[in-house]
Amino acid sequence: MMNVRYQFGPFELRPHQRVLLRAGEIVVLAPKALATLTTLVQRQDTVVLRDEIIDAVWPGSFVEEGSLSQNISILRKLMANDFPERSPIETIARVGYRFREPVFIETIPSESAPAGMPKSTGHSDLASQPVTPIESTLESAPLLGLMPLDGKDSRHKFFAEMQTRSRSGLALLAVGCVLLITGVAVFAHRSWKMQSHAKTQIGATRRVAVLDFNNLSGNPDDAWLSNAFQETMATDLASEAKLQILPAESVQRAERDIGLQQADGLGPDTLQRLCTILDCDQVISGSYLVIGDQMRLDTHLRDAHSGIVVGNYTIIRPRTEMLELIEHTGASMRQTLGFSPASVENRQVLEANVSSNPEAYRLYVEGIKLAHNFDGHGALSLLQQSVKLDPNFPLAHLGMADAYTAQGELKNASTEAHIAEKLDSGLSREQQLRIQATAQMTDHQFDAAADTYRTLLSFYPDKLDYARLMAANRDYAGNPQLAVVLLKSVLQKNTPVAHDPVFYSDLADCYSAMGDWASSLEWSSKGAEEAKRRGASTLYERLLTTETQALFYMHRLPEALKGTQEARTIAHQFGDESGELRALNRLGQIETAMGDLPAAQAALEQALAQEQRTGTSYRSVHTLSDFGVLLDRQHQPERAMQAFQRELRLARDYGQPQYIAEAELDIAREKIHQGNTIAGEADLRHILSEAKQIGDREITAQAQEIISSITHKS
Questions:
Q1: What is the pLDDT of residue 497?
Q2: For the segment 519-563, what is each residue's pLDDT rounded down to a tens digit?
Q3: Which letter does DSSP use for residue 291 in this model?
Q4: 112-119 long-range contacts, CB within 8 A, separation 24+
Q5: Which one is the CATH code of 2-118: 3.30.430.20, 3.50.50.60, 1.10.10.10, 3.40.720.10?
Q6: What b/e readout covers 480-509, taking b as 16+ CB neighbours within 10 angstroms?
């Protein structure tokens, strides 16, 4: 039996083996991207309709065109260096695509396989095999049944709040600021500038925490170097397949939780507490001293379980040679760990992660640190200054996209994310995909973003944060049931990493979005217990707030009040203004329901003032809704209507359909309360149409319930 291979430029496509080669080396592509390329190449110089491609790549499935566009973008980036003058894939506007490069077809014996591939299987490594057990579960699992819906706060939260919490690697602050975490996929193509590695199994890698470096001089002008060394050290080691570098945001959160001031002087008890929170295997810490034009860097590699120092590394260089300090330290550390020297590509990635303008890089590093410390407004200011000094630094634009998202300014966030995407050619393949996902999220292409995170998860199966982000985007796209399936499949792995309290928090949020308050309470309580055991105070505070939301809607008000007060105290202690605002809003709801209207008014007025001061006015959409309900309870219908109208104006400013529908529902309710039933019912029918259009099941249910009650009374 003979098979066919297709050759174009330096590439060779073997559909029967589901593999793409470049100059004889395997290029790993996600299965759907490879299938898209195969469909176009097999019909070379022919216009293939978009629907035809979708039917070939996703047979029998409903897929938005954004997923196809994502695959085309991946393929064009892959081949850009080899076809610099024009892309081999031509877009035929509003019709489809055409593969326009010459293709040479050759028949080959069926047993032929590229070098490095097992002939017995006839498969490529990552591209052709089931990606992970997680994805297999996701493909086959039935959707959970919907629970009864009630309460406006159960809808999908504005996605910026969840993105800020789950940032790791590039954006999340991983999905706000840029953090590099290690990967385990093969990237043979030179344009991705990533060292090739073999795929490893989940659990085979060592989890490494890179801590802040200690500024020995105490000079505040040099303080920013602490986080610069932390970030560049993580970037340098991120190419090692057997190391998983933990997100800087997670590390800094753990340092805050235990009150760690000088990471260089880790005692056994402090190290144990830190590693309990992070569940890490090794810790990198260090210090630096700037004297005149010279800088000394001391770095220590510790075994997290025994506390034994595995390696000490000292180097002195001119202070302008920060990358050389990192590279020399990294080289010594690789030797200690038994790794090969870093590749030339690794140096190129490292350079792309540092601005060519030193002042721009300082502002970027300081801005990202502010974002990690919950100061989104201050972070945005510094990142804007960084971009002015170096408009071609992609990570600063990505940081701005995340900062704008946290402020609710989605149009600006989208603009910055797309600028970062255009400038990302020097970054690693992993970073490029993270930037792509961020751009998709800011454009509300949540299913496309979920597909991108699915690709990342297939390349990096140890990085379960990608499973979280994939689930989050399914939730944002209006499918929390699918998100629950994915998150539970992660928890079934029964590893310490899978039982990070953040996963419990995400699962509880999904159940909240479904209105299943009993399940939300169950998982938030489990997460709070685990966070408390680990000493992860900020995560404990967040889970407490989710727990009290469920208690509130289950009418267990005294318990909800106690938990919310505790959450507010913790948030204030750690300077978490976002957490404090969540607690204030919850206090307003609970105290209104308990009839303590003066206390509720004080909490909500404080929340509104704090939202205005911190530049997070998008949060006022929900605060104004709660405030309007309070005013209605106080028999102030005119002021209540004014609050709801302000809520609607603000929701329209931010262009969030769910927020707009929620505000319109508040206004319709208030009209009915004021006796204008005809106008209120007309509004409800309009809202019902809008809610069905955007797929908001809860608002649909609430509008139908109110209309039914009006009909019943009449």
A1: 65
A2: 999 999 999 998 888 888 888 999 999 999 999 989 999 999 999
A3: E
A4: 112/3, 113/17, 114/14, 114/17, 114/19, 114/21, 114/24, 114/26, 115/24, 116/26, 117/17, 117/19, 117/26
A5: 1.10.10.10
A6: bbbbbbbbbbbbebeeebbbbbbbbbbbbb
Which candidate, 238, 239, 260, places its Cα nearest to that of 247?
238
Domain ranges of the chain: 2-118, 179-344
The tens digit of pLDDT for each residue in 644-702 reads 999 999 888 777 777 888 899 999 999 998 889 999 889 998 888 888 777 666 788 78
Which of 191, 204, 161 lies closest to 542, judged by CA?
A: 161
Q: CA 302 → CA 179, 272, 286, distances in Å?
A: 22, 12, 11
- pLDDT over 80 at 131, yes or no: no
CA distance 229 to 285: 10
CA 646 and chain centroid, separation: 31
Average pLDDT on 405-431 reads 87
Class of 179-344 in CATH: alpha beta
3-state DSSP helix/strand/coil % of the chain, to nearest 5: 60, 10, 30
Q: Please, is 292 exposed, middle or buried when counting C-beta atoms within 10 Å of its C-beta (0-12, 13-18, 19+)? A: exposed
CA dist., res. 195 & res. 200, Å (int) = 15
Average pLDDT of the segment spanning 469-496: 84
Tokens encoding 464: 């379960």
- Pick the residue with more confidence: 544 or 146? 544
Tokens of 399: 């940081």
The CA distance from 450 to 475, in Å, is 10
Q: What is the pLDDT of residue 338?
A: 85
Torsional sign, CA 163, 165, 167, 172: positive
The residues facing 206 across adjacent strands are 243
User: Measured between alpha carbons, how far is residue 253 from residues 258, 274, 364 in Å?
Assistant: 9, 10, 19
Task: Name the band, by pLDDT with cuts 50, 70 and 90, for residue 515.
Answer: confident
Token pair of 326, please? Answer: 């990192």
> Rg (Cα) of the chain, in Å, rounded?
27
Contacts with 381 (C-beta within 8 Å, 6 or more apart), sequence order = 367
